[in-house]
Design a protein that fits this description.
heterodimer, A: 326 residues, mainly alpha, 2 domains, 13 helices, 1% strand, B: 280 residues, 76% helix, 0% strand, cell membrane (chain B), Phosphate transport system permease protein PstA (chain B), MetI-like_sf (chain B), transmembrane (chain B)
């Protein structure tokens, strides 16, 4: 075989064809990947649209009453979602009251206290809290934590805080363990890893020169955190909090177990309540009329829109830090 | 002067002690939850878990059909979700880069990553279950795939971007078309990262309950027919835990232990795989 036979006469005609095939392959691959990328956008839009469509009957029938009304009556077919909306916001707020300071503490611990060798394992352990499936939190909450609350924490709260003028009503009622406070605490535990891991990452990304100059001026570790680290990472810290809040708003299974699925409004945090996600999870397969089903899907739409806004704020705050670092 | 210094030091010590306490507080819950799951789950473990079907109320049995259903639906989700996720990640890292479209998709993807999973369940219900008229394993697999995709997109985007540009340039200068550069050179050097993404995605969807509640629903019996409602571990745990029967509670704990052990093992494996980052 003589190689020149192949290359010489054929080459001019052959090469353009190969080049053409290559660009065709390139174009096809590019379109394929672009299509997959567009699919991500499509899912978001389609999810919102399909729920708006599925909930249109409820929105049209009840109008604003759907958000401001508080009776949820499957038999009378009147649906107002105030109680689940209130429950979602209050349980998530309790979660934030717990998760934000704890997460900040963990981030400070990992940045300023922990010796280097222990940072990895501790960070991993905290992140494992996020890996535990939410249904496990729910089961543990129902079988272990709710009885613990009922027997030890809630009687104490009622006794100490119950008689107080403004706070009192929040902590009144029989200690049954299931309710807004228990759900909020569990949500708080669940959101700790999300908030703390972002905080830890941005704390570590603070330029060493900044921290070291503060130390050189005689600042204590806490003063470095308060006057250098946090101001430098402020928007990411806020972003992390919003991220955790978004997670807490949409959390379903853990809350479903311990909220009690009550549709009566009660001020007390010790009483059973409801949340948007829990109401959907509990009632969806039982919804026997078109309007009931539509009301639950409309709830899903509300949840989606609210979490989208919260998570978008979180993302925007976090992107700002990324830009600064770049 | 002295007192100011003493006060600053005292405040500092107090804060650092509080920070340490906060860390211990978080770890305390981890230990408590894991301890409960392990002790309750171990007590309920038995070989019958893998040989018998889910029992009727009050009776004994196993979780065979649920394990099978979960495995099938997770498999389906991986088959649908991983290629889409890798391709989308490829677009972001190789073509889109810092363009407006790519940044928008990253933004949306990150939101989907944290979006409530129950909403995805509702979406698939509207998309598949309602038109088809019945719950099905396909719908469950699709819902899980939608949750898996953003995880894979993000990790493959990140790991592909870690591949140094010189590699691409060297391959291009040899006359390789770009798609071959990506599939033969870039994918190979980012393989660990991309594979980790898939593992991370599996860890994420293995315990997901909410999106399966109204897509795959549940099934007390064995079925290999994806077009019918399918048993799966998370929903079985949910139903059995909420029931008043002791034997069902025990099965729920056994299922919980298996799922938790699986997910935690995967999460730890992912971190071990990711540690030796060659490109930075």
């Amino acid at each position: 075989m003589d190689a020149s036979v192949i290359t010489q006469p054929d080459a001019p005609a052959f090469r353009p064809r190969r080049a053409h095939a290559a660009t065709r392959g390139d174009r096809a691959f590019r379109w394929l990947t672009a299509g997959a990328a567009w699919l991500v956008l499509f899912v978001l839009v389609a999810a919102a649209a399909s729920m708006a469509w599925g909930g249109r009957l409820a929105f049209r029938t009840f109008g604003w009453d759907f958000i401001t009304g508080s009776d949820w009556d499957a038999v009378g077919q009147r649906f107002g979602a105030l109680v689940p909306i209130y429950g979602t916001l209050v349980s998530s707020a309790i979660a934030m009251l717990i998760a934000v300071p704890i997460s900040l503490g963990i981030a400070i611990f990992l940045a300023e206290v922990a010796p280097r060798w222990i940072r990895g394992p501790i960070g991993l352990a905290v992140e494992l809290l996020a890996a535990i499936p939410s249904i496990i939190y729910g089961m543990w909450g129902l079988f272990v934590f709710a009885p613990f609350m009922a027997n030890h924490i809630e009687p104490w709260l009622t006794e100490r805080l119950g008689p107080l003028p403004i706070l009192g009503p929040l902590f009144s009622g029989p200690p049954i363990g299931i309710g807004m406070l228990t759900a909020g605490i569990i949500l708080g535990i669940m959101t700790i890893p999300f908030i703390s891991s972002v905080m830890r990452d941005v704390f570590q990304a603070v330029p060493p020169a900044l921290r070291e100059s503060a130390f050189a001026l005689g600042a204590t570790p806490w003063e470095v955190v308060r006057k250098v680290t946090i101001p430098h990472t402020r928007s990411a810290v806020i972003g992390a909090i919003f991220l955790g809040f978004g997670r807490a708003l949409g959390e379903t299974m853990a809350v479903t177990f311990v909220l009690g699925n009550a549709h009566d409004f009660s001020v007390s945090l010790l009483m059973p309540g409801n949340s948007i996600a829990a109401a959907i999870a509990n009632e969806f397969t039982e919804a026997d009329s078109a309007i009931y089903l539509s009301a639950l899907i409309a709830l899903g739409f509300l949840l989606f829109v609210v979490t989208f806004i919260v998570l978008a704020i979180a993302k925007l705050m976090l992107v700002r830090v990324e830009r600064k670092a770049r | 002067m002295r007192s100011i210094v003493r006060r600053r030091k005292a405040v500092n010590a107090a804060v650092l002690i509080a920070a340490t306490a906060a860390t211990l507080f978080a770890l305390f819950w981890l230990v408590w939850i894991l301890w409960t799951t392990v002790s309750q789950g171990f007590a309920a473990l038995s070989p019958r878990l893998l040989t018998e079907m889910t029992p009727p109320p009050g009776a004994d049995g196993g979780l065979l059909n649920a394990f099978f259903g979960s495995a099938v639906m997770i498999g389906l989700a991986v088959v649908i979700g991983t290629p889409i996720g890798i391709l989308a990640g490829t677009y972001l890292a190789e073509y889109g880069r810092r363009s407006k479209l790519a940044e928008t998709i990253r933004f949306v993807n990150d939101i989907l990553l944290s979006a409530p999973s129950i909403v995805i369940g509702l979406f698939v219900y509207e998309l598949v279950v309602r038109p088809a008229g019945h719950f099905s394993g396909y719908a469950g697999g699709l819902a899980l795939a939608i949750i898996l995709v953003p995880v894979v997109v993000r990790t493959s985007d990140e790991s592909l971007r870690l591949v140094p540009n010189q590699l691409r340039e060297a391959a291009l200068s040899l006359g390789l078309p770009q798609w071959k550069v990506v599939t033969h050179i870039v994918y190979r050097s980012a393989a660990t990262g991309v594979a980790t993404g898939a593992l991370l995605g599996i860890a994420r969807i293995s315990g997901e309950t909410a999106p399966l509640l109204f897509t795959a629903l549940n099934n007390q019996y064995w079925t290999a027919d994806l077009a019918s409602p399918m048993a799966n571990v998370p929903v079985v745990i949910f139903q059995y835990a909420m029931s008043p029967y002791e034997s069902w509670h025990a099965l729920a704990w056994a299922g919980a232990l298996v799922v938790t052990a699986f997910v935690l093992a995967l999460s730890i494996l992912v971190r071990v795989l990711l540690r030796p980052r060659t490109y930075k």
